[in-house]
């Protein structure tokens, strides 16, 4: 099974991208302005990833000097959507959970009406390796108004001034403060015990009839659980559901 980052990379970069539009260029320019303003105000780091072209624009404030990354390059362009130089100084477990949450966010955002997508974001607390300090990471996805793809991802980093000992992450609605989904441990009960039991059997290659016989329930009940799983996880088939559930350690 490929890594979570590789899976997320595939889903982000292999969307059904088509021709570029003036609207996309305008959106890129607007996001670049947001990134620069954030860096100037927060002394943070802003990374704007262009998913269509597999490249990123990195804007570094004074925090980069403190962290000894992106040195002497206030504005940097890289041929990747991943800020590995920053990931390398973070707690590896926190980075993994961040990627899991972003995978969930990508699944979720596709169900949101285009005009409301900017209302949602991912926020995570990421611990620095070998340090008591942490960073706050916030990410927004920006979509193409015509084709509904996710075209841009804007990641904002600054120091966490209320540190705690554990990783924390969630998907939030920034307009009303609603928490849509939280971290791996808190999401363990996202699926019911029966749904996880059925999903595990599906992962083992069993068909609905076999599952029904093993659990002493009807085939219709099994199929209803399968449909509920797809709707909850916002995936199109049980193969995707099994892959994602395994990565989230639900099964």
Structure description:
With 251 residues, this protein is α+β, with helices and mostly antiparallel strands. The chain has 2 domains: 4-182, Beta-Lactamase (2-Layer Sandwich); 193-247, Arc Repressor Mutant, subunit A. Helix content is 41%, strand content 22%. The chain contains 9 helices and 8 strands. It has helices spanning 4-13, 22-42, 62-67, 84-87, 92-109, 193-203, 208-215, 219-233, 238-247; strands at 45-50, 55-60, 75-78, 120-127, 134-143, 150-159, 168-173, 179-182. Strands 3-2-1-6-5-4-7-8 form an 8-stranded antiparallel β-sheet, with helices on both faces.
- Sketch the topology as an H/E string, one letter per element: HHEEHEHHEEEEEHHHH
Examine the coordinates and then state which fold CATH places here, giving the name of the CATH topology of the largest domain: Beta-Lactamase
Distance, first to last CA: 14 Å
CATH architecture level-2 label of the largest domain? 2-Layer Sandwich
The CATH homologous superfamily of the largest domain corresponds to PAS domain
Structural class category: alpha+beta
- How many helices does DSSP assign? 9
Round the mean pLDDT to the nearest integer and report it.
Answer: 88
Number of strands: 8
Structurally, the number of domains stands at 2
Rounded Rg: 20 Å
Low-confidence residue ranges:
none
**What assembly state would you assign to the polypeptide chains in this entry?**
single chain
- Main sheet properties: 8 strands, antiparallel
- Globally, the shape reads globular
Work out the helicity level: 40-55%
Approximately what portion of the residues adopt beta-strand conformation?
15-25%
State the CATH class of the largest domain. Answer: Alpha Beta
| Spatial strand arrangement across the major sheet | 3-2-1-6-5-4-7-8
């Amino acid at each position: 099974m490929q890594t979570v980052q590789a899976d997320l990379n595939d889903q982000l970069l292999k969307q059904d991208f088509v021709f570029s539009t003036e609207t996309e260029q305008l959106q890129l320019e607007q996001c670049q302005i947001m990134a620069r303003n954030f860096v100037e105000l927060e002394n943070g780091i802003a990374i704007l990833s262009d998913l269509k072209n597999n490249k990123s624009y990195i804007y570094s404030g004074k925090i980069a000097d403190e962290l000894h990354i992106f040195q002497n390059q206030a504005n940097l362009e890289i041929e990747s959507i991943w800020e590995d130089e920053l990931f390398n100084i973070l707690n590896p477990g926190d980075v993994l959970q961040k990627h899991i949450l972003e995978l969930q966010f990508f699944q979720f955002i596709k169900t949101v009406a285009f005009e409301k997508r900017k209302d949602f974001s991912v926020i995570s607390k990421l611990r620095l390796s070998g340090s008591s300090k942490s960073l706050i990471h916030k990410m927004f996805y920006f979509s193409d108004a015509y084709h509904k793809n996710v075209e841009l991802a804007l990641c904002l980093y600054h120091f966490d001034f209320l540190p705690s000992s554990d990783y924390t992450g969630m998907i939030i609605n920034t307009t009303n403060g609603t928490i849509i989904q939280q971290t791996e441990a808190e999401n363990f009960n996202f699926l019911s015990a029966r749904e996880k039991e059925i999903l595990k059997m599906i992962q083992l290659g069993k068909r609905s009839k076999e599952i029904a016989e093993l659990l002493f329930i009807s085939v219709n009940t099994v199929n209803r659980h399968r449909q509920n799983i797809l709707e909850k996880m916002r995936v199109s088939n049980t193969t995707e559901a099994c892959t994602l559930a395994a990565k989230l350690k639900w099964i």
